[in-house]
Description:
The protein has helices spanning 29-41, 92-104, and strands at residues 11-16, 19-23, 58-62, 66-70, 73-77, 114-121, 126-129, 141-147, 150-154, 164-168, 173-176, 185-187, 201-208. By secondary structure, the protein is mostly beta strands. It has a single domain (3-208), classed as Alpha-ketoglutarate-dependent dioxygenase AlkB-like (Jelly Rolls). The strands form three sheets. The protein has a seven-stranded antiparallel beta sheet with strand order 1-2-11-8-13-6-3, with helices on one face. It has a four-stranded antiparallel beta sheet with strand order 7-12-9-10, with no helix packed on it. A hairpin with a 2-residue loop joins strand 4 and strand 5 (73-77). The N and C termini lie far apart (41 Å). Residues 118, 126, 131, 141, 143, 150, 152, 174, 176, 185, 187, 204, 206 line the site of N-[(3-hydroxypyridin-2-yl)carbonyl]glycine. N-[(3-hydroxypyridin-2-yl)carbonyl]glycine is lined by residues 118, 126, 131, 141, 143, 150, 152, 174, 176, 185, 187, 204, 206.
Amino acid sequence: xxxxxxxxxxxxxxxxxxxxxxxxxxxxxxxxxxxxxxxxxxxxxxxxxxxxxxxxxxxxxxxxxxxxxxxxxxxxxxxxxxxxxxxxxxxxxxxxxxxxxxxxxxxxxxxxxxxxxxxxxxxxxxxxxxxxxxxxxxxxxxxxxxxxxxxxxxxxxxxxxxxxxxxxxxxxxxxxxxxxxxxxxxxxxxxxxxxxxxxxxxxxxxxxxxx
Length: 211
Ligand code: MD6
Ligand code: FE
């Protein structure tokens, strides 16, 4: 009950139907060690896009499937193309968080089988896209932000629709499901934070059910 009056009490905001933000939901620091263990097995890399250039965001995966991009397109793969070995295991810390947050929006038994790890350096953003490589859009995408803040721009069902900006800060979790599941969204180039000059990047983890 001591938490009741704490300004740090986590909170939940429904931004639009199917788009729910959980502010300061986790202690970001608790995730960093686990991420570093994954990166030691499947390092971050700049994947080729179908447009023929290397993505500015560095990416890797953990879990039974990993999202991969190459000149031919996007797909979920059971193995890391760099090593030929399975992607690192999905840590229980990750699957528990994803399942708990999905349950908060009324989706019970969400069992993610893929976690895409994105790393952004200062000045790097991500273009507008939809996430539509998963088999069943009933399942949400649960997204965790760590480190530097980002502006997440969402424009509904149209790539060029009116943008709505959502600030994603360290420890925030965003869930996209239902009528928002295929909304177009992107990330504005990440800015340095003068209050945290030793912070040089942002991680985003997205928990998905690929198959
Ligand atoms: C990012 N996130 O936050 C990129 N996609 O760096 C996404 O592209 C995303 O946060 C689907 C659902 C939630 C997301
Ligand atoms: Fe996305």
